[in-house]
C-alpha cells in the first residue's frame, strides 16, 4: 500500500541537563513512519523511547537533527497557527497519564469534541455528533461520555483518550505507554481496539512500550532502543523469535522469565 504521509526523524539527538553535564537521551536516531506502518519502540526504562516519541510529535525539539513531516521541518510548521493545526490533524499523540491529560472541569464528551471545534472549526452540534459516533465505535456507552474524567476507571479514561485522538482521523498516531498503568485484564482489550482502529481508519502507529509481546502483537515492526539508540529493527515476529542484538536477546529472555511460555499471551486475544 502506498503511504500518503511520512514522518521522518533524521539523525535526531536530544540532550538533557546543563551544558557542562548534559547527557544524550536520544542519540543520532533515524526513523521513518508512515500512515501504513505500525512500529513499536521497545527497550528498558530510560532507553529514550518516550523522548523519541515526543520528538516525533513536536513535544520535544531535537538538540541536533530534525523531524520532518512530508519533507517540511516539524518545529518550523509548529510555529505557525494554521500549519500547527494541520500537523495536529495529521499526527496525534496519546500519553500514558490520562489523569492529567483530561481537563477535570470538562465532561469526557466535551473533551473529545475539543479537537473538532479547534482544529476543524466544526459547529458544536456537528462536533458533538461526530464525537459520540467515535466514542460508540470504541465500545463506550454514550451516557458515560457525560461524566467527568474522575468518575470513570483508568481503562475507560484511556479509551476516551483514544477517542479524542481518533476523532480527528489522524494519519499517524503516536502512543506512549498507553496500557502500562492498566490492569492486565484491560490491557488486551485496549490493544485490540488500537490495532483495529488503526487498520480500519488507515492510520499509522508508533507504539512506545516496555511490553515486548504486547508491542509485537500491535505492531508489524519493532525498533529496539538501548541507551538512546536503535540497536535492532525488524519485523516483530523476527525480532521476538530470532533477536540479533545481544541487548534484544536479554530483553526477550527477561520477558520469557517474567511470563512462562504460554502465559505470555494473557494480554493478547
Ligand atoms: N525532561 C527531561 N529532563 C531531563 N532528563 C530527561 C527528561 N526526559 C527524559 N530524561 C532522561 O532521558 C533519558 C531517556 O528518558 P525517556 O523517558 O525517553 O526513556 P524511556 O525509554 O521512555 O523510559 P521509560 O520507559 O521509563 O519512560 C532518561 O535518562 C531520562 O531520565
Automatic annotation (TrEMBL):
* InterPro entries, per the entry: AAA+_ATPase, ABC_transp_ATP-bind, ABC_transporter-like_ATP-bd, ABC_transporter-like_CS, P-loop_NTPase
Annotated Pfam families: ABC_tran
Q: GO MF annotations for this entry? A: ATP binding
Q: Which CDD domains match?
A: ABC_NikE_OppD_transporters
> Keywords on this record?
ATP-binding, Nucleotide-binding, Transport
Q: Which domain of life is it from?
A: Bacteria
Give the ABC transporter domain ranges.
7-252
The record's similarity note reads:
Belongs to the ABC transporter superfamily.
Name the UniProt record assigns to this protein: ATP-binding cassette domain-containing protein
Instruction: State the species of origin.
Output: Cellulomonas avistercoris
Q: What is the lineage of its organism?
A: Bacteria, Bacillati, Actinomycetota, Actinomycetes, Micrococcales
Amino acid at each position: 500500500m502506498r503511504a500518503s504521509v511520512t514522518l521522518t526523524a533524521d539523525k535526531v539527538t536530544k540532550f538533557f541537563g546543563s551544558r557542562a553535564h548534559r547527557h544524550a537521551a536520544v542519540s543520532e536516531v533515524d526513523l521513518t513512519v508512515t500512515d501504513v506502518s505500525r512500529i513499536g519502540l521497545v527497550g528498558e526504562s530510560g532507553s529514550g523511547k518516550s523522548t523519541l516519541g515526543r520528538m516525533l510529535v513536536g513535544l520535544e525539539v531535537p538538540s541536533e537533527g530534525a523531524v520532518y513531516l512530508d519533507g517540511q521541518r516539524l518545529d518550523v510548521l509548529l510555529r505557525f497557527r494554521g500549519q500547527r493545526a494541520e500537523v495536529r490533524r495529521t499526527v496525534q499523540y496519546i500519553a500514558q497519564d490520562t489523569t492529567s491529560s483530561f481537563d477535570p472541569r470538562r465532561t469526557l464528551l466535551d473533551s473529545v469534541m475539543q479537537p473538532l471545534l479547534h482544529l476543524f472549526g466544526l459547529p458544536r452540534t456537528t462536533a458533538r455528533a461526530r464525537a459520540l459516533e467515535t466514542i460508540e465505535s470504541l465500545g463506550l456507552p454514550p451516557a458515560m461520555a457525560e461524566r467527568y474524567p474522575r468518575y470513570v476507571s483508568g481503562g475507560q479514561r484511556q479509551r476516551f483518550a483514544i477517542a479524542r485522538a481518533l476523532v480527528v482521523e489522524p494519519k499517524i498516531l503516536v502512543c506512549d505507554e498507553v496500557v502500562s498503568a492498566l490492569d492486565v485484564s484491560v490491557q488486551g482489550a485496549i490493544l485490540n481496539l488500537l490495532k483495529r482502529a488503526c487498520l480500519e481508519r488507515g492510520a499509522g502507529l508508533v507504539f512506545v512500550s516496555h511490553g515486548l509481546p504486547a508491542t509485537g502483537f500491535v505492531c508489524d515492526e519493532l525498533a529496539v532502543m538501548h541507551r538512546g539508540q536503535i540497536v535492532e529493527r525488524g519485523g516483530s515476529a523476527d525480532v521476538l523469535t530470532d533477536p540479533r542484538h545481544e541487548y534484544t536477546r536479554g530483553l526477550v529472555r527477561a520477558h520469557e522469565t517474567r511470563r512462562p511460555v504460554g502465559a505470555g499471551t494473557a494480554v493478547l486475544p
